[in-house]
Amino acid sequence: MFRILPIALAASVLTCPPLSFSQDEAPAEPPAIPADLLDDPHVREELAINEFTAPSIARIFDSLESLAPLPMADYTRETPERMPLNRADLAVELGFLIADGFLIVQVGELGKVEGLASQLTRYAKALGAGERVNRHAASLLESAKNQEVDQLKKELAATQKDVELELVTLRDADLAHLISLGGWIRALQVASGAVDKQFSEERGREVMREDIADYYASIVGSLEPRIAERPNYVEMRNLLSGMRNEMLLKEGEAPTPKRIAGIKAQANTLAELALKREESP
Question: How many CA atoms are closer than 13 Å to the CA of 72, on its beta-carbon side?
């Protein structure tokens, strides 16, 4: 998708078994994370590149600078008052929240940071990382008050990192990838909408990232069966696989408004599927 890098996210349930697959046979090694989605190794040295490493939401949003103006009015999203009971749903929604933070900063709506900081704290606490995130919430408010955009981005990235670090102690790699997946879907939704609204071939190429769609399709398929076999996750994997082909540009081929409109529609469907909750812990 965008010219971005991934943050090593980390997560695991207390009794989580090794990653398993819903298929009779374990698939081949998943595709490598696109290089431009990998965060600075010095920043991520605590985790390095391992099964917990997932794309960085901060890097995903780096490329959105070139897609301004973003049509945020078309993609407002209210966080439900009641948090989900299921930890997988918590992780995906946290990814959406972190992505919303970058969007708020990108369009300069800093008055929304206070509400965002409160929601980030709630979700992080539910995932067991509340203490780590509390200090970032306070820094987000201070940075918003002082109109420090760069610092706001740093605090959002640090929030994701600290949630990952806490999840590593729980040995739940799936949650790490779900946070990243939620952030990417939200970014793709808004980015494809921006390009659809103001099309150019150059802007379109920022969305045509078949390698990232391929990566997430593989990740969704490799989640533990109780997540991967949920109907919305099966649909997401199928949709991502088809989207990967739709994003692929052959040599000499250029994006078209029609293809971007199709990706936008698929991104909206992905967002709906990702936010479907399972009402059991």
Answer: 16
